[in-house]
Design a protein that fits this description.
alpha/beta
């Protein structure tokens, strides 16, 4: 009957399309893309993610967030034209594929999308401001869709870390950088309890007499092959992953334990990261450490960068004074 046909069509619509935006959902996009690829020799892929979507939901409510998602979907359709295919991959992620497009054309389209979204949209008399980050990739249709999506996703990851509201094209360099980052993240997740971490001690001399006054503790990380990873590579990643607090505490403990057996007039100096001051518990941690280890407080020196004190609301100054 006509009713049964309608019900079937409605069920198909629900199974294959995202109810909010009318775009394909992740599952149906995968099967549609396979058919779509047959018509072209190359495919441009866009991986799009809304920046700070949680802020939009918090500020304008969930219906504001929904309106913004619909607006991004509409922008994609209008900027990429009828012969592209689109999906909402869940949450605030969108994917689009467009056939036989050159890298330059894809870049122009992506810039259009970026600029159009950045103009904001009106919702119930308010203007909702928001941005997107985009990862791009152009590849031959010989490659499977999963490879294309992975490449565009890596490019998107880079856009997010470049400060958002940006467009990045996938490249081999980027792929290597991404693999390196992943390896580093794995190493650091293991290193939280000291695995792979090592302390080296660099002497601090009195220039005139060359007398050793103390040592600075230098943190090093070894990879699985035993190769040293420089701190300027792993420290920013550890900060980003929120692991630096644990690693920082490990460094303080190990440094104090090592220095305990040194001559009584030799101090130990430890570098602190800005992130270690965020929780406000650093002075009490250091106090407990020197009491537990029975280590003279005068022999522990902590070192911070000037950057830490710029833009400080006073909390860091207070903690340094307490230390």
């Amino acid at each position: 009957s006509a009713y049964a046909k309608m019900a079937k069509a409605e069920a198909e619509q629900l199974a294959n399309f995202d109810a909010l935006t009318g775009l394909y959902n992740r599952r149906s996009f995968t099967s549609s893309a396979k058919r779509y690829f047959n018509n072209y020799s190359t495919i441009g892929t866009l991986f799009i993610d809304i920046d700070d979507f949680k802020r939009i939901n918090d500020e304008y409510g969930h219906d504001g967030g929904d309106a913004f998602l619909r607006s991004v979907a509409h922008t994609l359709k209008s900027k990429l034209g009828e012969n592209a295919i689109f999906a909402r991959f869940g949450g605030d992620e969108f994917v689009a594929c467009i056939g036989d497009v050159s890298p330059d054309e894809l870049q122009t389209i992506a810039q259009d999308v970026l600029a159009s979204v950045a103009k904001g949209m009106s919702h119930r008399g308010q203007t909702i401001q928001g941005h997107v980050s985009i990862g791009l990739n152009v590849a031959s249709t010989e490659y499977p869709l999963s490879d294309m999506l992975h490449a565009a996703d890596i490019a998107l990851y880079k856009s997010k870390h470049e400060g958002k509201n940006t467009i990045t094209f996938f490249s081999d360099d980027l792929n290597n950088e991404f693999k390196h980052q992943q390896k580093l993240e794995k190493l650091l997740n293991k290193a939280v309890d000291g695995t792979g971490l090592e302390l080296f001690f660099q002497p601090i001399n009195q220039p005139e007499t060359r007398k050793i006054l103390g040592f600075e503790a230098l943190l090093r990380l070894r990879d699985e092959q035993g190769i040293m990873v420089p701190p300027d590579e792993f420290i920013p990643t550890a900060e980003r992953l929120g692991l630096i607090k644990e690693i920082g505490k490990w460094v303080l403990c190990e440094a104090v334990k090592a220095a305990k057996d040194w001559p009584k007039d030799i101090f130990i100096s430890v570098n602190l990261s800005a992130v270690q001051f965020e929780q406000g518990d650093l002075p009490s941690f250091i106090k407990k450490l020197i009491i537990d280890c029975d280590f003279p407080a005068s022999r522990l020196e902590v070192e911070v960068t000037e950057r830490l004190l710029i833009g400080d609301e006073g909390s860091t100054h207070k903690q340094l004074a307490a230390i």
